[in-house]
Predict the structure of DUF2125 domain-containing protein.
Amino acid sequence: MPSSQQPKPNSSRRFLWLGLFIVLLFGGYSAGWFWFAGRAESEVRKAIATVNRDGVSLECANPQIKGFPFRIGLFCDRLDYEDSGRRLSASAGNFRTAAQIYQPMHSVLEIDGPLRLTAPDLPQLQFDWELLRASARIARPLPERISVETRMLSGKAAFIDGVAKPLFSADETQTHLRPNGTNIDLAGTFSGLQIDPQAIGGRTLPRLDGSADTTLNNGVALIESRRPALRGQSGTIRSLTLTSGGTSGVALSGPWSVAADGLVDADLKVTIQNPRELSRILSEVIPEQKKQFETAFTGLALLGDAPTLPLKIVRGKATLGFIPLGMVPAVD
């Protein structure tokens, strides 16, 4: 009589083959990751060697590729840069980059402070922060987007006596840059900016917040030329604001251009938020001009809580409404 029992599948053998497949897959992935890391580290060293010529020196101390198993990035114990021809130098602390294996074109970068800069005709500058992080979506010829954010940023300057004096501090800053066709869009914000009185002749400014949203026409070509000159350039300020405590401040918008000789032309609109409060703040900062501020801003207050005036600059000559403001210096 035939048996009614069917042979049971060999489950243990299936699990054995599955485990063997996983081990081989992970082993192959690991070998591939470390092979690619070795190639990347070699390319980094070659790139640095290419830069180090004609009086230029760039050092990434102890370069390593880290992030196994799901990330990959370059780590340096320290960054140092020097251009003896231009008498420029910069140094910073630990440098880290990272990109997800499944999203290699999106890279994140972090740098530890302090950052020290030296340049001709300037004091030695030193910047420090709690966090400095940048991210970029890599593309050609330029990244699709670059973002930089800082937390608890501060700056100092060391003059002839060598003693570093504070310049400013800011709670948070953000900067975003992206190509827009042939143009470059640039936007940013900062909050809790405090200018040290020593940096402005002993005067005391309130804590400031600000934002910017602008476009630089033909900015892609300007960046690719590596000649950061504004002469012959133009753009649009969609919004540029500076406020104190969110209760008073100034907003600016409109197109601008710079002629080949450096003279500025602009057709801007200036909005004054809470003129009476702004008059009080300016009178405390510059007490010797108190009467002039009170006269000017009392008139503005009659136009409302946020009056808007035209600010025109023609060949460097600036006027606010019908009030002449003087000449804007030529720019480079």
The chain has a mean pLDDT of 88. The radius of gyration is 28 Å.
